[in-house]
Amino acid sequence: MENIIQRQIILADRNSSKLFLSHFNLTSQKPEIIFLKEILLHFSKIPYENISKIIKFNKHQKFEDRIRLPEEIIEDHIRNRLGGTCFSLTFFLQTILTSNGFKCYPITADMLNRPNEHCALIVVLKDNKFLVDPGYLLSEPVQLIYGSNIVQTQVSTIELVYDDLDELYHVYSFDGIYKKWRYCFEDKPVSDDEFQKYWEASFFKGTMNGICLNQIQDGKMMYVHNDYFRITSLKGKEKKKISENYISSINKIYGITPELIEQAQSLLLEKKRKINQNLT
Question: Of all residues in the chain, what percent carry a pLDDT higher than 70?
Fold first, then answer.
């Protein structure tokens, strides 16, 4: 199969980068830390969501038809307030940074016992390297150092720790009460072929069994997993259930077109029905 990642990087997808800059009223600047922070701040407004992924997975059979490439992501965001999941968001951010003169490369990360489950980017600025993670909606770059580096984001504290024992970087989040391990990674570029392989595998993970959304809005992280709704800010957390009017509630929180929410929900119900049918 043709490597779609390599083809897109060659094209640099300048149109999607221009659309992104135009939509968020940004102008291209020198590839320095100030511009990087500005890009990340606005990129974090694009939601993590798997509604679009669920729909395309069920609509198409081939991987190259299922994935959502950068131009589709920004157009869908403008039109339907959609976003993407970690692989599509990471690749989109990579094309934006690359087309604006930044040097960066993708890495994959392990989550609990799930190797290569997550992905992010390493941006190289002069002699320094920075972790940028659109899948976790990090609005700040986190510098890679030997030891511990703590960064305050809009909604929580992120700690990046290099462990001499396993020679891996570990990412933790701290909400003021609890410190939680998120993932670990090696500072090693992932090839285009590997990235495409892990991206394709992500369509068959457990995360595709339910609706999941996450977005930063006015200093608050709005997270939904099925009917579970959590709001996180520097002041604390608020948890609730979306017990009724699910589609209108999701639309109200994220602005996503109701028909798309309903379509994804119907596809998940049909999938569950078929699984239960096979068990009987």
Answer: 95
Beta-bridged to residue 47, according to DSSP, are none
Mean pLDDT of 141-165: 94
Contact (CB, 8 A) for 170 and 109: no
Tokens linked to 54? 């669920």
Q: Give the residue from 82, 91, 85 showing the smallest Cα distance to 117.
A: 85
Distance of CA 201 to the CA centre of its chain: 16
Residue whose token pair is 């081939």: 62
The helix (H) or strand (E) run that includes residue 120 is strand 114-125
Q: Radius of gyration over alpha carbons of the chain, in Å?
A: 18
How far apart (Å, rounded) are the C-alpha atoms in residues 36 and 13?
18
Residue 2 has pLDDT above 80, yes or no: no
Domains of the chain with bracketed CATH: 4-279 (3.30.2140.20)
For 122-133, the pLDDT digits (tens) are: 999 999 999 999
pLDDT of residue 156: 86
